[in-house]
Task: structure prediction
Amino acid sequence: MNVPREEAPFRWCGGPPWRRSGRGRGGARPGSGARPGPGGSGDRRRRVPWVSSAVVAVVVFVGTGFASRAHPDQQQLDAFARSLLLVGPVFLLLRVRWPLVALAGTVAAALVLQAAGCAYGAVFLPVVVATFRAVVTGRLRAASWTCAVLLAGHVLIGQWLYRYLPPSGDRSGPWGEELYFAVWVVAVLAGSEVVRVRREAWARERMERAAAARRRADEERLRIARELHDVLAHSISVINVQAGVGLALLDSDPEQARTALTTIKAASKEALGEVRQVLEGLRAPGEAPRAPAPGLDRLPELADQAAGAGLSVTVDTEGTPRPLPPGADLAAFRIVQEALTNVVRHSGSRVARVRLGYGPARLTLRVDDDGPATGTDAGGSGNGLAGMRERAAALGGRIEAGTRPDGGFGVLAELPVPRREPRCGAAASAPPHRGGRTAVPPDETKETS
Result:
């Protein structure tokens, strides 16, 4: 059965199993009647580790055999001792589902082998493997107590109970060996905990990288959506108005209808060019765009397009114009473009006023029309105003839009623009609309319509 993405259990490498799998401490999914083992969190983790346990068994048998021949004074391996050597690897088969049971079993088997007087060999290897598994699954405290029992039993057998245990005539070992054994136990616990911490750190890093990648993808998707909306909304609004004029004048005034069709052709060509530029950025991510992004230097061209839709645009500039950063320049252009598009689509006024104010560290944009609103609510919550607010917010600025007391509609944008020292040729690259006022009258065809 497919599980919805938002309901799928969260996978976590390392740490306690209830953190890794999104299940309860007992391993069962909340609200279900199933009671899997304490370490169960999926079929992959429930598999019995046959191969690794068999390898450990072989190493234990071979290592203990060499140690028994090297220490003939110790109890030689018999059938009972060899069966005890199998106990540890058999308990390792349980370490995936029940790591603490596996650790307790391997510790008990190692202590019994020590009490039987057999040469140590590699009998503590299953203890190391079981300890590692218990710690990396988040059971450090329980593993520490179990290893403390191992250490205490080792000292008790080696220093006091040896005289009652085989082989006969055995002597107590030096306390230095007990200290070495204690250091070894602590090192195994510490190394296992370091591995667990590193696993969780790697898992967090993977999560953060994945989240950052998703966030970048979302931001890029929003950016592309804003670009396409601004380009298409403005151009299609102009095309829509001109198409209506062309249809109305097709029979009575073919020349003016031809002019409307020419405007439609120019607007559609420009829209196709800008859409192509956005799509090229998608097909070749990371490459520099072939065409520069539009900026305030294209305001006269934007005003001409609005004039083709019957809108007279007046551009006023306050302060000293200066080159803007690419992001701020593009955002300012798109905000003015969207505001003029809203005037064309939703306002009964055929006059719009654009005012640019260059402050020490801020650019102010204001677009006003005299209204009244027609059709759709001029201050609505469509994607146009939302896109303008997103553009301003991305730069740390703000947008205010609403109906004025006189019935017109106004859009006020403030964008932070740090002042930069002018570079050589800056004057030549300044926007052509600097200084004074530029009035672009509407096309005569619009007055006729």
